[in-house]
Specification:
about 300 residues, mainly alpha, Na+/H+ antiporter like fold, BASS family bile acid:Na+ symporter, membrane, transmembrane helix
Length: about 300
């Protein structure tokens, strides 16, 4: 999807630059996520997806790393570093969230295989009602309702999966014919979500500039560290390793955010919003890394 990563970075900055626009599209966030998941289901090859699920790396190691190893490692590291209480809570909760729903779409946009991130994301979401409340309670003392989490995930994944299955059965040929249009729809939903996540962030930055820049810096540091860790510790080609990095670094904090309800403090909300910056801006950096590697290989 040419220029997709650049457009994502522009989208999140546009939401920050134009607060009225972010406020206007905020009610459309849920619809954007549904379209995003649906579009990803429609574009992933079923046989390739089943092959991916047979790999232990996909069905066991990566979900365990995403939902257990990474949250525990980050939580203990943040506690040892002596982070201020609210920042510690925000960081621990953000990393215990499952991988972002848009990771498969971003991988496809970058020209990577989307089957692995989709499979790991779905399996991680299945674990989330168990691991998220346990880790949240262990590190922060916060009680999250596992049944409510499960209901939200079942509605999102089950609904999008059912619609995708119906469309594949009834209009499979048309889907193949209009695959570029589906890609454009997925990109549009990602852009809409990127803009919507910035609702209220501009005002928070203006009233709490130090706290805001601290949250953004910490969000970038955590995301990039997890992406680098994933890329370094997994085998495969550069594209495969960068894909694993995306899975571990980009998290669906909106799920935890909504589950917390009124328990979300201003600092936690600000940090959750700040996590969107690396999610939407690092794909452009990854695109540059891949492009540079390809030029080096072609000139060798």
């Amino acid at each position: 999807m040419p220029r997709g990563p650049t457009l994502l970075a522009i989208g999140v900055l546009a939401g920050l630059a134009f607060p009225a626009l972010a406020d206007a599209v905020r009610p459309l966030m849920a619809a954007a996520i549904f379209v995003l998941v649906l579009g990803t289901f429609l574009q992933v090859d079923g046989e390739a997806f089943r092959r991916a699920l047979r790999r232990p790396l996909v069905w066991l190691l990566l979900p365990a790393a995403a939902m257990l190893a990474c949250p525990l490692a980050v939580g203990f590291a943040a506690r040892a570093a002596g982070f201020q209480a609210e920042l510690f809570v925000a960081l621990a909760l953000s990393v215990c969230a499952p991988p972002s729903s848009g990771t498969a779409a971003v991988a496809r946009m970058l020209g990577f295989d989307a089957t692995v991130p989709l499979a790991v994301t779905l399996l991680s979401m299945a674990l989330a009602p168990i691991t998220v409340p346990l880790i949240a309670a262990g590190f922060t003392g916060l009680a999250l309702d596992p049944l409510a989490l499960a209901a939200r995930l079942a509605l999102l994944v089950g609904g999008a999966g059912a619609v995708a299955l119906l469309l594949r059965q009834k209009a499979g040929t048309l889907l193949v014919k209009h695959s570029r249009s589906i890609d454009a729809l997925v990109l549009a939903s990602l852009l809409l979500f990127a803009v919507a996540t910035m609702a209220g962030v501009r005002a928070q930055i203006e009233t709490q500039p130090v706290a805001a820049f601290t949250c953004v810096g910490l969000a970038f540091a955590c995301n990039v560290a997890l992406q680098v860790l994933g890329a370094l510790l997994t085998p495969g080609s550069l594209a495969e390793r960068l894909t694993i990095g995306l899975i571990l670094g980009n998290r669906n904090v909106g799920l935890v955010w909504s589950a917390m309800g009124a328990a979300v403090s201003p600092t936690t909300a600000l940090f959750f919003a700040a996590t969107q910056f690396p999610i939407y801006m690092t794909p452009r950096l990854i695109e540059l890394i891949v492009s540079r590697r390809q030029k080096e290989e072609s000139s060798a």
